[in-house]
From TrEMBL:
<protein>
    <submittedName>
        <fullName>Iron complex transport system ATP-binding protein</fullName>
    </submittedName>
</protein>
<feature type="domain" description="ABC transporter">
    <location>
        <begin position="5"/>
        <end position="241"/>
    </location>
</feature>
<dbReference type="InterPro" id="IPR017871">
    <property type="entry name" value="ABC_transporter-like_CS"/>
</dbReference>
<dbReference type="GO" id="GO:0016887">
    <property type="term" value="F:ATP hydrolysis activity"/>
</dbReference>
<dbReference type="GO" id="GO:0005524">
    <property type="term" value="F:ATP binding"/>
</dbReference>
<dbReference type="InterPro" id="IPR027417">
    <property type="entry name" value="P-loop_NTPase"/>
</dbReference>
<dbReference type="Pfam" id="PF00005">
    <property type="entry name" value="ABC_tran"/>
</dbReference>
<keyword id="KW-1278">Translocase</keyword>
<dbReference type="InterPro" id="IPR003593">
    <property type="entry name" value="AAA+_ATPase"/>
</dbReference>
<keyword id="KW-0547">Nucleotide-binding</keyword>
<dbReference type="InterPro" id="IPR003439">
    <property type="entry name" value="ABC_transporter-like_ATP-bd"/>
</dbReference>
<keyword id="KW-0813">Transport</keyword>
<keyword id="KW-0067">ATP-binding</keyword>
<comment type="function">
    <text>Part of the ABC transporter complex HmuTUV involved in hemin import. Responsible for energy coupling to the transport system.</text>
</comment>
Amino acid sequence: MAVALECRNLFFSHGNTPVLKGISLAMKSSTFTAILGRNGSGKTTLLHCLNGIRKANSGTVHIKGTNIQTLSRKQVAQHISLVIQENPEVFPFTVLDVVVMGRAPFLGATQVPGTRDYKLAKQALETLDVAHLAEVNFNRISGGERQMALLACALVQTSDIMLLDEPTNHLDFKNQYLLLNKIKQLCRQSNTAVVAAMHDPNMAMLFADEVILLKKGVIFGTGPVRKVMTKANMDQLYETDTTALPFVRDGHFFIPTDVIETIG
Ligand SMILES: Nc1ncnc2c1ncn2[C@@H]1O[C@H](COP(=O)(O)OP(=O)(O)OP(=O)(O)O)[C@@H](O)[C@H]1O
């Protein structure tokens, strides 16, 4: 599979605090890559550096072989869609109007979205089972509904690379599975490289192809989920003893062992 997004030796500090300490990665097209790591390990910062909205102190990011520094923000947005963790109440628009904003990277400076753009926006809402929200005010929908709308916005961007920061945040049980399944299908059908920061290793085991284990700004494991998500690696990543139960397709379902003992 072709490399869609690559970074080499990325270093990033918030003030004097080093957050990313020499990250080198290659993320492939048609591949769902999950980034796992404890709170504060640097997942969001990494996604922001990969998208170029945060500039690394040193190191490089290449989109399909082109250095991100040589691209305008609009050119980057034609390749990468980013769904951030927070979804603030800032849009006094309908959900459909928010979703169609995902077409902005493909419109001229004074061009307004056209029939095709609105058609794509409606299709994206249908794909995520939230077409009924199209005419509702974005500020009057729930956190989970907002998350689905912003994911629809990323879908209409039809980018080669999708960066998702905790995409299942706020989503109910059914929608978590629906969304991750759609993302997996998208990878397969449209050659998209998906890179998602995730908190649930079991969801990553179910849906992701590859995994990046990030601990305190350093990568200590990367590769196919079933190869890398071993009990030993999960213990080390989450700094707890885990129990690994047999799970689908020769995978494992991880639970902190002390929790099993307590509730047992
Ligand atoms: N704007 C900021 N200013 C200063 N430090 C920050 C800022 N944003 C994040 N940090 C620090 O950088 C580190 C990495 O944060 P980051 O948000 O990338 O982690 P994360 O793995 O995404 O965490 P979480 O899983 O909790 O969302 C943390 O120690 C955090 O406190």
